[in-house]
Amino acid sequence: MRVKLIVPSGVLVEQPAAKLVAEARNGSFCLLPRHVDFAAALVPGILTLTADDGTETFFAIDEGLLVKRGENVRVSTWNALQDKLGELKQAVLEQFREQDEQEQAARLALDRLEANLVQQVLDWDGRRYG
pTM for this structure? Predict the structure, then answer.
């Protein structure tokens, strides 16, 4: 099979695989080259690609979609990290911590914008009736 892992910034990896293991909403599954065409909604977890020589490559992935059609497998996800299996947990935690900080900063900026808008409406309304 030819597996292409796609994230919003582009193609993270494109490589042949003899086996793919991933997790969907209804559980873990395995794809082999002669598997029927298949589509699945993926949940956050570990995606494992096994090469013909038995070498495994691990990816921590976010929610996404997997589509197998013939020899081609496309995996599209919001986030993916490639690392050794033992180091993926730490890498994922660090990335999630960074995303949490960015999301908190964005929420704070939105809160400020909302407060500013409310203040402007109150000021305008006060001038209108004052």
Answer: 0.66
